[in-house]
Amino acid sequence: YTESRAMDWAFRLNPDGLTTRERFSIAHGLDVNQSLGEATFLDLSVRQNYVDYTDRVYDDIWDPRYDAALYPDGVSYYEDGAIIQGVQFTRYVQESDTWLFKSTLSSQVAQVHAVKMGVEASRPRVKFGSSGILNYTTSTTGSDTLQRITEDSAEFPLAKTYEPVTFAAYVQDAAEFDDLTVRMGLRFESFDANATVPSDLANPANSIEGVPESHPVDTTVKTSLSPRLGLSFPIGDDAALHASYGHFRQFPALGTMFNNVDFRRLASFQASSEVYAMGNPDIKPETTVQYEVGYKKAVSYDFGFEVTTFYKDIRDLLGVEFLEMYNGATYSRLTNVDFGNVFGVTVALDHRALGPLNVGLDYTWQRATGNSSDPLETASRAAAGEDSRPRLVPFNWDQRHTLNLTGAYEGPGGLLLSTVVRWQSGQPYTPQIEAGYGTGLVVNSGRKPASLTVDLRGEKPLAATANASLFFRVFNLTDTRFVNGGVFADTGSPYYSRFPDVDRVTLNNPTRYYAPRRIEIGVRLGGGR
Question: Phi, psi (5° rounding) for residue 66?
Fold first, then answer.
């Protein structure tokens, strides 16, 4: 059981107005391992995971303290608009009860072949959404009344329950020959959303007269086959070449698939109406086809390097499509239309024993581009009157350069020092310019500043015979304040804006920055590191 509150800088003077997040979880299961021979083994596993999560200020929606607190409000001239009255009206609940079954059969069927096969199945029962809606309404006399909505409707949807079914089966073989190692496999996956969608998307709520009737139809079961192949063979006594190819499938989170799937809200939808993108439980899994080729060589007994090139072709990413209704209105719906690709090279150096010092260094250059980082980006651009046609731009997480350095020193008397140094280039952001100088800047055409972080650890036994040691840990030794966080779109900097009066609240918010330097010193009892 955990209980926490999220940090919200606007509520810094009114912390009791923040919601409390409570999470209760329990997991239990049964594992059975059975030997079916000298080289054949069967593993069976059955598990149940239960999670109950709530996010609200008061347990009861009818709690009179909601009325007494009033709506969250701040004053612009007081502490940069800090909210000094009211409580958050969020009332969110999520409950999941999932049964999982796994079975694995592994066998050394021949001297060079190790075969493994298995099945996996799960049926989660997931309920999520609002547990009640609080909404202030203003009467004709100007008085505000707190409205409590506890009945589900198209305008005010409440939490609903979903029961999708997943199944997977796989077989893989690891064949090791004298000069070649082959790993190959095939994975079958099935997903049944166990939900319904409108039969006619041009009349999704069946509310338009004089057109074909629309009714709910079951979603189709989505199946896929994912082949995977890996090869490795030596080149002489001190080098090896390896290559791999594989298909990987992933469904979006259930919260994304089933969000806003009540098409009743389109019953009175007209051409001038606005609606968020409708959800879609009938989507396909996102597919990544990955290629990798690498070369590894030992230059000496204690020094080696590895070079790896990789490419990922990403298809069926979640995006939106625009659908026109019979009455001329247009709405958007989540579907598999987005795409992207990732290309990169990693160079790793490893010096295992430079006297008492071990050093490792790896550098990755990567380019990750696609037509959208956010499934709703296309719909948002269309709503803003901007060009919504697909175009290739850097993903939000595109990081061209990454450098990691690790070092460990073993000194006399059991002294151990280690460090991790990370340098990374900036991720992209979308610049903003003033009106009159042109609009429509390319999404993610700017770059955030690079960053460097250093972590340091050390440990020393208190005595040769004592089962205790003294240790210290230093996180963010250089006290770096920015690591690919938010920046001001008009400057590309996290530290200043060209419009300080407008952005004053954000400028004064310390939670925007990376965690400051933290030093820990302690004594460890019982041995071990």
Answer: -60, -40
* Amino acid of residue 10: A
Report how far residue 39's alpha carbon sits from residue 113's, in angstroms, rounded to the nearest whole number.
11
The mean of the pLDDT values for the chain is 89
Q: What gap in Å lies between CA 95 and CA 117, rounded to an integer?
A: 32
Q: Are 432 and 397 a contacting pair, CB within 8 Å? A: no
Q: Who contacts 19 (Cβ-Cβ below 8 Å, separation ≥6)?
A: 5, 6, 55, 56, 57, 88, 90
Q: Smallest Cα–Cα separation from 295: which of 238, 222, 220, 253?
A: 238
Rounded to whole angstroms, the maximal C-alpha distance in the chain is: 90
Torsion angle of the four alpha carbons 271, 272, 276, 282, in this order, in degrees rounded to the nearest 10: 0
- Whose CA is closest to 396, among 456, 448, 325? 448
pTM for the model: 0.86
How many residues are present in the chain? 529
Burial of 120 (0-12, 13-18, 19+ CB in 10 A): middle
Distance CA 276, CA 398 (A): 27
H or E stretch including 504? helix 504-507
* Those residues with Cβ within 8 angstroms of residue 490's Cβ, 6 or more apart along the chain or in another chain: 431, 432, 433, 434, 497, 498, 499
Of 72-76, 382-386, 450-454, where does the model show the most confidence? 450-454
What band does 137 get if pLDDT is binned at 50, 70 and 90? Answer: confident
Residue 238's alpha-carbon distances to 68, 391, 399, 433, in angstroms, are 75, 45, 33, 56
The DSSP call for residue 16 is: G
Residue 482 neighbours by CB distance under 10 Å = 18
C-alpha–C-alpha distance, residues 380 and 375, integer Å:
10
Return the structure tokens found at 431.
């610049």
DSSP 112: S
In order, the DSSP letters of 255-296 are HHHTTT--GGGGTT--TT---PPB--TTPPPEEEEEEEEEEE
Measured distance CA(166)–CA(225) in Å, rounded: 14
The rounded distance, in Å, linking the Cα atoms of 485 and 422 is: 16
For residues 422-451, average pLDDT: 83
Residue whose C-alpha is closest to residue 117's, from 136, 104, 100, 131: 104
Task: List phi, psi (to 5°) of 403.
Answer: -130, 125
Number of Cβ atoms within 10 Å of the Cβ of 155: 10
Residue 379 has pLDDT above 80, yes or no: no
DSSP three-state, residue 507: helix
Q: Cα separation of 202 and 331, whole Å?
A: 10
Contact by Cβ (8 Å): 115, 127: no
Distances (CA, A) of 100 to 23, 120, 165: 21, 7, 10
